[in-house]
Amino acid sequence: MAVTTRLLQHPDPAWRPRMMGAIIALVLLWPMVVASEFKPWILLDAQSLNATGRFLADFVPPAHSSEFLQLMLVATWQTVAMATAGLTLALLGAIPLTLLVTQSLSISRLGSGRMRLAGVLIRHGARWLLVLLRSVPELVWALLFVRIVGLGPTAGMLAIALTYCGMLGKVYAEILESSDAHATESLLKNGSSRLAALLYGALPESAAELVSYTTYRWECAIRGSVIMGFVGAGGLGQRMDESMKMLAGGEVATMLIIFVLLVGCADLVSNFLRKRLG
Prior knowledge:
Layout: H1 2-9, H2 15-35, H3 46-57, H4 66-101, H5 117-135, H6 138-149, H7 153-178, H8 182-189, H9 194-228, H10 235-245, H11 249-277
Helix pairs in contact: 4-5, 4-7, 4-9, 4-10, 5-7, 6-7, 7-9, 8-9, 9-10, 9-11, 10-11
């Protein structure tokens, strides 16, 4: 009884900010829910349930003929190759841009603590280039490159390279700037180049986080390459598009299983690399 009285006399002091935060979030989110026409009760409609049942029934059993599995093996390899090659090209562009936009790797600001005007202009130019690259979704880039280079994985690879270059450069710079810059500044003050300061100063401090994010982006590139297959960029996505148009549910089920296995393998690779670096 005494405990109950004490709780009533001393209510949670944070209840007012929490209530205000909940009300503000509701006021801001409700127009977005209305604009997106979010109506989850439609899923429970009898017609929707019947359509879902028929759609899922076509998935059983998954297609498993030897000829189809050989075709899936080629498409899977094409998807992984597209994602890996695209990410490699993205790294080739992201690393130089990271050197330009990371303030802790700036040589011009070592003396006075401020960057020269030319350095500021170059840094902001590189930063806006990263914004431009990542602001265009890879699916849009894929549509453009399909028009330029034709159907096939080349369009998907180039689309991944451009979008992921912007993403990797931005996040790499943020990771490096948030890490301890003492070793990097010491190397730069002793005449080291930016690349050497990155490799021997900043990289050892942030290697685990950089590798973790890179492998995560590789996993995203695999998923992205599947989606881009629907616009003619090859790989599993293009095969799935063909199977869905033919209403071949068993083939779609097999491809979905392959997608899950690919993402699981990417997660295993990420965990292995983090443990080795940890």
